[in-house]
C-alpha cells in the first residue's frame, strides 16, 4: 500500500511571497493578507519575518541539497574501476552489489557513467593485434620521433581492391513515416559476386603517383610487383628525389611480395631507400585514408560503377580530383599518429 500524504498544503510561489511582503509594506494587516491568500496567519507572519530585515529581499527559492546520492563517492569509484576493467559488462550486470557494494538500478549506473564522461557505445572494429607486434609498433614510433623525418619525403604505397557496387559513403534522406521503401529514399546496391579491380599506387609530398591496375582475374605476385616497381614506381621515385632531395624513401607494408628477394634486389640495385615498417600497421599509413576518400568519390552517383570497365574509367576520373592540400594534410597527420600509438601502448589508433 502506498504512503498516504497527511497534508494538502502547497509551497508559496516566489510571486506569492513577493505579493505578501508588498501588501504588508503597504500597511495591510497579517489577518487581511491571510484571508486574501487563504493561507494560515503563521505562514504569512513567517514570510514577513524572513524578508523584513533584508535590505533587498529576493523571493526566489534558494538552492536545495536534494535527495542524497544513491552511491557514495567510494562506491562510485569502485563501480568505475570495474567498468574500466570490463567495459563490455551490461548495465544489468553492473547493478549487482558485487560492483559497487549495493544493489542499484540501471538508471543509477547510467547517471554514474555520465558523471565520469562515459556511456555505453558500440565498439569500433579494428584488426586484432599480437602483443609482440604492439611492442614493435611502439618501438618504431619512438625511433621515428627521434629521427624527426619530413613525411613529405615518404612515398606511401599500397595495394587496394575496389569492388563493383561498393559505396562506403554515408548518405542521409529526408522522408516521412512509411516512405522508407520509396525508390527515391533507397541506397541501391548491385549484385556483383564481389567482383573487383586490384590497384597499386602511391603518393609523395603533394603529388599522386602512377595508377596501376592489376589485370582482370589476376593477383599481385612478387614477379608482378617487381614489374610495377620497375616500370612505374622507380621513375616516379627518381623524380621525387629531384624534387625533395636524397631523403626520399618508399613505404610499403609487409606483404609477401614486398619481402621477395627479387623485389629487394631490384630496390637495392635501383638505390631506392626503404622505410622500415612495423607489422600489422595499416592505421599508421596515410595512404589507407586516401583509399577511403577515393572510394567515397566512386560512391557518388555520377561515378556509380556496375562492371570492371566502369571501375577503371571511374578511377581515371577520380585520380585528378585528389587535391594537393589533401595529400599534405595526410602527411601532416604522421606526428599525431606516432603520439597516439605510443599513448595506446601499440594498440589500434583512430586513423
UniProtKB/TrEMBL annotation:
Transmembrane segments: none
GO terms, biological process: DNA integration; DNA transposition
Residues covered by the Tc1-like transposase DDE domain: 220-306
Residue span, Transposase Tc1-like domain: 77-143
Pfam families: DDE_3, HTH_Tnp_Tc3_2
GO MF entries: DNA binding
InterPro entries attached to this UniProt entry: Homeodomain-like_sf, RNaseH-like_sf, RNaseH_sf, Tc1-like_DDE_dom, Transpos_IS630-like, Transposase_5, Transposase_Tc1-like, WH-like_DNA-bd_sf
PANTHER family to which the protein is assigned, alphabetical: SI:DKEY-77F5.3 (PTHR23022:SF135), TRANSPOSABLE ELEMENT-RELATED (PTHR23022)
Cited NCBIfam families: transpos_IS630 (NF033545)
Protein name: Tc1-like transposase DDE domain-containing protein
Species for this entry: Venustampulla echinocandica
Amino acid at each position: 500500500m502506498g504512503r498516504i500524504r497527511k497534508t494538502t498544503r502547497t509551497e508559496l510561489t516566489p510571486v506569492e511571497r513577493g505579493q505578501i511582503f508588498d501588501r504588508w509594506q503597504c500597511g495591510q494587516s497579517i489577518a487581511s493578507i491571510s484571508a486574501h491568500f487563504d493561507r494560515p496567519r503563521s505562514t504569512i507572519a513567517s514570510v514577513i519575518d524572513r524578508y523584513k530585515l533584508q535590505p533587498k529581499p529576493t523571493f526566489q527559492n534558494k538552492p536545495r541539497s536534494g535527495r542524497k546520492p544513491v552511491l557514495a563517492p567510494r562506491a562510485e569509484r569502485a563501480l568505475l574501476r570495474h567498468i574500466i576493467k570490463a567495459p563490455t559488462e551490461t548495465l544489468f550486470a553492473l547493478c549487482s552489489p558485487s560492483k559497487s557494494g549495493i544493489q542499484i538500478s540501471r538508471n543509477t549506473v547510467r547517471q554514474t557513467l555520465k558523471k565520469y564522461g562515459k556511456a555505453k557505445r558500440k565498439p569500433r572494429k579494428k584488426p586484432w593485434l599480437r602483443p609482440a607486434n604492439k611492442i614493435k609498433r611502439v618501438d618504431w614510433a619512438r625511433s621515428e620521433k627521434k629521427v624527426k623525418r619530413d613525411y613529405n619525403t615518404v612515398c606511401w604505397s599500397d595495394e587496394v581492391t575496389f569492388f563493383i557496387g561498393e559505396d562506403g559513403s554515408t548518405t542521409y534522406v529526408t522522408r516521412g513515416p512509411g516512405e522508407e521503401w520509396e525508390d527515391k529514399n533507397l541506397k541501391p546496391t548491385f549484385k556483383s559476386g564481389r567482383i573487383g579491380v586490384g590497384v597499386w599506387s602511391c603518393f609523395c609530398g603533394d603529388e599522386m603517383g602512377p595508377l596501376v591496375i592489376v589485370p582482370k582475374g589476376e593477383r599481385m605476385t612478387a614477379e608482378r610487383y617487381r614489374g610495377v616497381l620497375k616500370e612505374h614506381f622507380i621513375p616516379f621515385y627518381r623524380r621525387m628525389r629531384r624534387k625533395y632531395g636524397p631523403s626520399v624513401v618508399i613505404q610499403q607494408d609487409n606483404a609477401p611480395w614486398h619481402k621477395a628477394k627479387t623485389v629487394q634486389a631490384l630496390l637495392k640495385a635501383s638505390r631506392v631507400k626503404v622505410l622500415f615498417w612495423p607489422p600489422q600497421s595499416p592505421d599508421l599509413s596515410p595512404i589507407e585514408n586516401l583509399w577511403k576518400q577515393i572510394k567515397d568519390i566512386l560512391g557518388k552517383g555520377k561515378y556509380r560503377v556496375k562492371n570492371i570497365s566502369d571501375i577503371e574509367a571511374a578511377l581515371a576520373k577520380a585520380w585528378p580530383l585528389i587535391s594537393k592540400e589533401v595529400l599534405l594534410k595526410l602527411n601532416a597527420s604522421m606526428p599525431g599518429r606516432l603520439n597516439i600509438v605510443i599513448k595506446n601502448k601499440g594498440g589500434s589508433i583512430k586513423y
